[in-house]
Amino acid sequence: MTSTHLLTIRGLQAHYGQTHALKDIDLDIEAGGMFAILGPSGSGKSTLLRVIAGFEQATEGELMLDGRDLLSVPANKREVGLMFQSYALFPHMSVAKNIAYGLEAERLSRTEVKSRVAEAIEMIGLEHLADRRPAQLSGGQRQRVALARSIVKRPKLLLLDEPLSALDRQLRVGMQSELKRLQRETGMTFVIVTHDQEEAMSLADRVALLRDGRIEQLGTPAELYERPNSRFCAEFIGNSTIVEGETVSEGVLLAGFGVLPLGVPKGSSIGERVLAVIRPEQVHLGAVAGAHGAQVRGTFEGASYLGGAADAEVQVGDTALTVRCPSMPHFEHGAEVGVRLDTADIRVIAA
Amino acid sequence: MSAVSAGRVRGRILSRIALALLYVFLYVPIIVVIAMSFNSGRSVLRWEGFSLDWYVKAFSPGPLMSGLQVTLIVAFASTAIAVVLGTMLAIGVYRYTRGPLARSLATLPAFIPDILLGIGILSMFGVVKFAIGMHSVILAHASFEIAIVAAVLLARLGSMDRSLEEASTNLGASGAMTFLRVVLPQLAPAIVAGAALGFTLSLDEFLMAFFTTSTNSQTLPIQIYSMVRFGVTPEVNALAAVMFVVSLGAVLLAQRIIMPLMFRRKP
């Protein structure tokens, strides 16, 4: 009870069968806003979600919600909502009955259940579908019902398991803003658990990146993208070309690039092995005399159109460098091209 | 048109004939039984004119009717036991066991030869000095119906979305509320299907009833058996025709009511 943190996790350990799924997790999640727990499959994010929801047991550690110890509270009394990836709507109940279920479990009066259900259905804009069964709804509508069913109980924390992954691209954008709107309107704390870095980056204010049951890096989406602390983070979040190098007195010597004036990791001495994380938008095609940053030469290998932009592939030494271009570049395959690097932005991490 | 398409047409006609013959094979015996049940004469081979006399006879008090009564009591009682215990068994196996052994042991009695079960149950009753009669037939039938109900339910449980139960828990429901309002409605069509299957198998089960009953509570199949040992009598035909119509009705009912229920309840 020392801070304004809604959820406090200290030294959390969990074993799932033979695997050590969570190894010493420390995490603070502030009230309000959207937090994302991101990681590849097997990183422990699902176990963490299930431990918070009460479906898996932690073997050690502390889990506090609003100053109350959660680990000793059974799953049905935790005040933690969970929107399942499959939505888990009750197929034999109507939309209204699904939403009322959690309130009936609280034994609220019939009139209160009715008014809160009506309010929730209105919030998701499905008044005309209140009597439909889940099977008669589209994927996006089902998700909104699943959200309403959790939100109507006014939990302190709402966990969302891969909230956008089941939707097609068109719906994702709409649901993304809908989730943000619902979070703002309710003032609840949303915790998104996902393997999809785009989903985490676009929704969350803060992201915890999990790897092998540990938190690899914690920060805002921009911090994780611009200042990855490890190769894993750099590769998992966004596109990048990672180039091996060595620190020298003028900066970093990158294989095939020469010496570049890059910032080196804190406390590193000369002659240390490092990795440069080059994002596609930190490099540009075409040599310009007197431009900022460094310039190198490479061989044009081809480009793929992205709609509004294009990614060119340029071979620099042994490195296939991805270069973001404002429009589709027209070079012959094998043509020699100049590449400019925004050396001030390129991140160098310890190898 | 061409030789190829002529061959294809011939092949299709042959397939249709084969299909028609299969239906004939399936249904001719039943049609003979139904037709002869309306025969006015006593012969089971020669048609002597239309009559409903054998229906009147079949449903007059006598060994057939007492047998039918015993059979219906046995079928209803054993099905009731099997529904409760079979459901508990299936849920227990599904929740608390790993691997195929427990599952196989739960459903195996449905496939064990009846004669083995019949002898086994009879000798077991002998060992514990349990008097045999209608109650022992009920228990014997319940033993394989439990396995049938469990088998149908385990299949349903396997296809059920496990997260439904967790969603119910997450929404604050107690274990009892989750079972009554989420699990049971999901299982209901399978329970009905398992019960219907067990009930119809109990109706014409012969071997186990034969081994485990006493002379004063004989089921319909046993009564029919003792009557036809000296030749099929027309009232047996009449009763068989009624049973056929009843089971046909049950099948249609199942298709019209249970199937849509199961279909609609799919997530």
SSE inventory with pairings:
The complex is a heterodimer of chains A (about 350) and B (about 270).
Chain A lengths: L4 E12 L2 E12 L3 E5 L6 H9 L6 E6 L2 E2 L10 E4 L11 H11 L4 H14 L15 H13 L5 E5 L7 H18 L2 E6 L2 H7 L2 E6 L2 E6 L1 H6 L4 H6 L4 E8 L2 E4 L3 E3 L12 E6 L4 E3 L8 E12 L4 E7 L2 E7 L10 E6 L5 E4 L1
Parallel strand pairs in A: 3-8, 3-9, 6-7, 7-8
Antiparallel strand pairs in A: 1-2, 1-4, 4-5, 9-10, 11-12, 11-14, 12-13, 14-20, 15-19, 16-17, 16-19, 17-18
Helix pairs in contact in A: 2-3, 2-4
Chain B lengths: L2 H35 L15 H6 L4 H34 L3 H8 L6 H14 L6 H26 L3 H8 L4 H29 L3 H6 L7 H9 L5 H31 L3
Helix pairs in contact in B: 1-11, 3-6, 3-8, 3-10, 6-8, 7-8, 8-11
Report what the structure shows:
The complex is a heterodimer of chains A (351) and B (267). By secondary structure, chain A is an alpha+beta fold. Chain A is built from eight helices and 20 strands. In chain A, 24% of the residues lie in helices and 35% in strands. The model of chain A has no long low-confidence stretch (mean pLDDT 92). Chain B has helices at 3-37, 53-58, 63-96, 100-107, 114-127, 134-159, 163-170, 175-203, 207-212, 220-228, 234-264. Chain B is mostly helical and 267 residues long. The A-B interface holds A 53-55, 75-77, 80-82, 84, 86, 88-92, 101-102, 105-106, 133-135, 149-150, 153 and B 161, 163-164, 166-174, 177, 181-182, 185-186, 264-267.
In short:
The complex is a heterodimer of chains A (351) and B (267). Helices cover 24% and strands 35% of the residues of chain A. Chain A is an alpha+beta fold and 351 residues long.
Into which percent range does the helicity of residues of chain B fall?
over 70%
> How does the overall form of chain A come out from the CA principal axes?
elongated
Instruction: State Rg of chain A.
Output: 24 Å
- Count of alpha/pi helices of chain A: 8
Q: What is the tally of beta strands of chain B?
A: 0
Percent of residues in helices of chain A comes to: 10-25%
